[in-house]
Design a protein that fits this description.
Helix content: 55-70%
Shape: elongated
Number of strands: 0
Distance between the termini: 27 Å
Largest sheet: none
Strand content: under 5%
Radius of gyration: 16 Å
Amino acid sequence: MSTENITAFLEKARTDETLSTRIAAAYAEVQAATARSLAELSVATGLPFTAEEFLASQQSTLDDESLEDIAGGVGPSHKYGFRVVPGRA
């Protein structure tokens, strides 16, 4: 794997709004698929919930900027100057 290509890709996303939007959409798809899988597992454990309920439970009462301030801007989205906002693709 070329770490240089990964770095270049993420740097490009910082200035390319279309690419940044596509990254956010991909992230949202993964998050939704994970929620669906967890909901299926919840039924098997006898503690059922829906994917929508799971996603809602993961939403913070703090806005994204406040969370970033608290976290100190940790993570690739901060490093490369764009944010991946779950559920906002």
